[in-house]
């Protein structure tokens, strides 16, 4: 496992880096799969994770080494027997606190070696006992990580809600802060980028949740979710000028170029950076891979809208030049977004001009009233037919 955690850190149980390697083998770029396989199997053997080895080989259809499994399983049985001895000794010679600590150690061991069902049973049993509020909260944090580890969104959702209740009842500052980080990751995984960005930005300066990801990854996700969900003025204040982001962003490939090129309206550079971000960060992320096409599409809309806001009209050629693409590409791409109502402009292909037609606030309110009024009239008509019958 990892080195011993500091006072403000939780142990990496389960080790979410293994879930990343498993994801790469399932969905990641082909050129990364061999290294991911090696890292995954080497760590499993090093940590003697017999149950997880069986789970992974079945899931990924990898060759199963029976001799290796037997060896790891024997080690697991020996270690579990030692935990049982600790529990028995605590029951006979110590108090309830020591008994619960021994039981928690055994539950953590189940989670560490990838025995999901026994780990959940052990943690659930502990939650029925008389334990401190802090220990109870930390157990539920572990249940959320197990949910992340096995891509079990239902488990994550249920335990995030449970954490909110427990933290509200008696969580200290560190646990409240940690909950924001966990919830940010969860919201990002379900495509609530605005909610995720808010949690990430709030937690940047006090981040201690290294059990779910390294700090650089946390910064990366803070930037990615902020750019797609925040207004330009907020991006400048909360992202571009944030000292926590500036401290490490140059160490994260392509991210600084991606962030600054959009804000500085260097759209050709932004399109190149977006392609690099897609290849390097989106395709290799367990949390964003499922939203890859959506994210790239929305960021193109953000860039197009940002440019169009500055003009009443501009030529297709000048817009194509600004983005470093062909006129045909701009024509096809804008057409899709205009037809879907995502961009307020029209294309005059004959004259080669794009004209913006941004509705003002009053017009937007008027259109909303019209739509809502039509819905209300339709419902009244349906109700009247029912009454007449």
Automatic annotation (TrEMBL):
Entry keyword annotation includes Coiled coil: yes
Domain of life according to the entry: Eukaryota
Keyword Coiled coil in annotation: yes
GO cellular component entries: proteasome regulatory particle
Keywords linked to the UniProt accession: Coiled coil, Proteasome
GO biological processes: proteasome-mediated ubiquitin-dependent protein catabolic process
InterPro entries: PCI_dom, Rpn7/CSN1, Rpn7_N, RPN7_PSMD6_C, TPR-like_helical_dom_sf, WH_DNA-bd_sf
Occurrences of domain PCI (ranges): 192-361
Residue ranges crossing the lipid bilayer per the database entry: none
Coiled coil: 73-100
Pfam families: PCI, RPN7, RPN7_PSMD6_C
Subunit structure: The 26S proteasome is composed of a core protease, known as the 20S proteasome, capped at one or both ends by the 19S regulatory complex (RC). The RC is composed of at least 18 different subunits in two subcomplexes, the base and the lid, which form the portions proximal and distal to the 20S proteolytic core, respectively. Component of the lid subcomplex of the 19S RC.
Its job: Component of the 19S cap proteasome complex which acts as a regulatory subunit of the 26S proteasome, involved in the ATP-dependent degradation of ubiquitinated proteins.
Record-given protein name: PCI domain-containing protein
